Structure formats: structure tokens, C-alpha cells
């Protein structure tokens, strides 16, 4: 059976505008189940607990969403599976984006915060907050759309709210990618942000860090492509050409998120950056380095101030 929408007697009255292919639903349920199971095992093995409410949660929501599409392939006229799949597949990548923010923060810690406009701590805080806001907006919109459909009303207002959440998330991902690119370029050319103190780190941009940066870039680009697709999809309307064409959804949503999750499976931060206890010890040592540098600068600053005071007194006395 082609991945194109099947032209059967139900397609014209289906909320999709077509009947989802069952084999596609099964394929993606298997892919996301395997990837999510691997993420769960990897998170436990490397003790990277933040991967549980991020990558694992994203995979679980994707499984539910694709389960709804599989359900629709057997009962396309029901609204429940349609709403289940559209809400879940829209919000599912949001936790995965949060994992990217945390991983990048650790990379910034290791290569030097003097090359980043935001500290690793604030980088994670700001962008994860943006991610949560986007998730809430999308969830509210999805709930409104679901309630409207169940009450035989138009889901368009709820869709507009979901669209606002996706656009907000798209903007935050855009800033995240720009700052990340600037950080890497500044590091490679050894150009710290003006006035920043260079903090010595025991790490170099070795092959493992390069692999992690590459995987993070690939995953982020996949999510970015998917975000643009969902933006155009919802902007086009619930009965527009984009949302009623199955191949667009499969390629630009399902495949993009699957690629993003599998990339982090293959190039896992636990394998490339080490288990969680090495992350914590580095965080502590970096803070100790900053305190030591600050302590070294204060006496020097005091000596310079004292020297300037003595010169001023000598000038007053005409010496």
C-alpha cells in the first residue's frame, strides 16, 4: 500500500482527509519503542537522570501519538484517536529539546564559558523555561481543540493556540542554535566574549566532544525542520493541503523526530561525556577555579589601587 492517502469511501469524511496507513503506524511505533527503551536503559546505566523526563518522555508521547494514528487506520471516523495523535505528536518533541539544552550546557562548561554569551547555568535555565512555556501553550491549545471537536465545534481557535506554542518554540530553538554556533566558532578561533575571564578547563575539543556536538547539531536540525513543518501545517488550516497529505507528516514529522532520537541513542552523552558523577565533579571543579581566580585578582586590584593612591599623594606634595 502506498504511503499516499488511500482513496476509499471514508477518506472524504475522515478528520485527516485520508485514512492513515496501518503499516506506517506500526513501523513508527516499533521505531520509537526501540529508541525509547534504549534511552531508558542508557539513562539508568550512565545515571543521566535528566534523560528520563526528556528523551524517554518524548519517546513515550510519540508512541501514544502513533498509536492513535494506528487506531485511526482501523476506525478513521472516530475523533478520539485523531485528537490523541495530533496533540501527542505536536508536544512530544518538546522534552527532547530540553535534553539538547542541558547537553549543550555541559559542553559549554567543558570548553570554557568565556566563549558563550550565557553561562552554562543560565543557558539551561532560560531555554528550558522557554521549552516549558511552549509545552504549556501547546497543551492548552490541544485541550481546547479536543473539547471543541467533542462538542461538534470548530477546533480552529485551539489550533491557533497550538500554532502560537509552536512558533514560540521555533523562536527559542532559533536563538539556541545561533548562540550554539557562535560559541563553537568563538572557541575554534579562541575569541572569548569581551571582558570575560579565561577559566582553565581540563578538557579539549577531542573526538568524543566533536561527535557529541555533531550529534547535537544533527538532532537540533531535524527538530528545527519538523517545527517549521508543523508551523506551516497549522497555519494552513485543519482542512488545508499540508495537514491532509500523509506523506508530508510521515517525512517531515515522524522521520525527523525518529532521526533526532536515534542520533542521541548512537552518540549518547553518557558514552561521550561520561556518567553523571563526572558531570557533577566537573561542575564543582569549575566553580572552584572561578573562586580561585577571583581571589587572585582581588589582591592585585588592591595593590593597583594603593599604587595609584601613593602617586596621587606625591603629585599633591609636588614631588
TrEMBL record:
Keywords: Membrane, Transmembrane, Transmembrane helix. The chain crosses the membrane at residues 22-41, 48-67, 82-104, 125-149, 161-188, 249-267. It comes from the Eukaryota. One of its GO terms (cellular component) is plasma membrane. Residues 287-319 are annotated as: Disordered. It is a multi-pass membrane protein. Pfam families: RTA1. Residues 287-301 have a biased composition (Basic and acidic residues). It is found in: Membrane. Its main location: membrane. This is RTA1-domain-containing protein. The lineage of its organism: Eukaryota, Fungi, Dikarya, Basidiomycota, Agaricomycotina.
Amino acid at each position: 500500500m502506498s504511503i499516499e492517502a488511500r482513496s476509499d469511501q471514508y477518506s472524504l469524511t475522515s478528520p485527516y482527509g485520508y485514512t492513515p496507513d496501518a503499516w506506517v503506524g506500526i513501523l513508527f511505533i516499533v521505531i520509537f519503542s526501540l529508541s525509547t527503551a534504549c534511552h531508558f536503559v542508557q539513562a539508568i546505566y550512565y545515571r543521566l537522570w535528566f534523560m528520563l523526563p526528556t528523551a524517554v518522555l518524548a519517546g513515550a508521547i510519540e508512541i501514544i501519538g502513533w498509536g492513535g494514528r494506528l487506531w485511526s487506520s482501523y476506525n478513521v471516523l472516530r475523533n478520539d484517536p485523531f485528537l490523541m495523535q495530533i496533540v501527542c505528536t505536536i508536544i512530544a518533541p518538546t522534552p527532547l529539546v530540553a535534553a539538547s539544552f542541558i547537553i549543550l550546557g555541559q559542553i559549554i562548561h567543558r570548553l570554557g564559558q568565556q566563549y558563550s554569551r550565557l553561562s552554562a547555568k543560565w543557558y539551561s535555565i532560560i531555554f528550558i523555561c522557554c521549552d516549558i512555556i511552549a509545552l504549556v501553550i501547546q497543551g492548552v491549545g490541544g485541550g481546547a481543540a479536543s473539547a471543541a471537536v467533542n462538542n461538534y465545534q470548530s477546533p480552529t481557535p485551539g489550533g491557533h493556540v497550538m500554532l502560537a506554542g509552536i512558533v514560540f518554540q521555533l523562536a527559542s530553538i532559533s536563538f539556541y542554535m545561533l548562540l550554539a554556533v557562535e560559541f563553537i566558532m568563538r572557541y575554534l578561533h579562541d575569541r572569548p566574549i569581551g571582558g570575560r575571564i579565561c577559566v582553565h578547563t581540563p578538557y579539549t575539543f577531542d573526538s568524543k566532544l566533536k561527535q557529541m556536538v555533531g550529534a547535537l547539531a544533527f538532532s537540533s536540525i531535524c527538530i528545527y525542520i519538523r517545527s517549521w513543518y508543523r508551523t506551516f501545517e497549522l497555519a494552513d488550516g485543519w482542512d488545508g493541503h499540508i495537514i491532509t497529505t500523509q506523506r508530508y507528516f510521515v517525512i517531515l514529522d515522524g522521520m525527523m523526530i525518529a532521526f533526532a532520537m536515534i542520533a542521541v541513542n548512537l552518540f549518547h552523552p553518557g558514552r561521550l561525556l561520561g556518567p553523571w558523577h563526572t558531570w557533577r565533579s566537573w561542575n564543582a571543579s569549575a566553580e572552584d577555579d572561578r573562586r580561585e581566580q577571583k581571589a587572585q585578582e582581588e589582591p592585585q586590584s588592591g595593590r593597583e589601587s594603593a599604587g595609584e593612591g601613593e602617586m596621587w599623594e606625591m603629585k599633591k606634595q609636588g614631588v
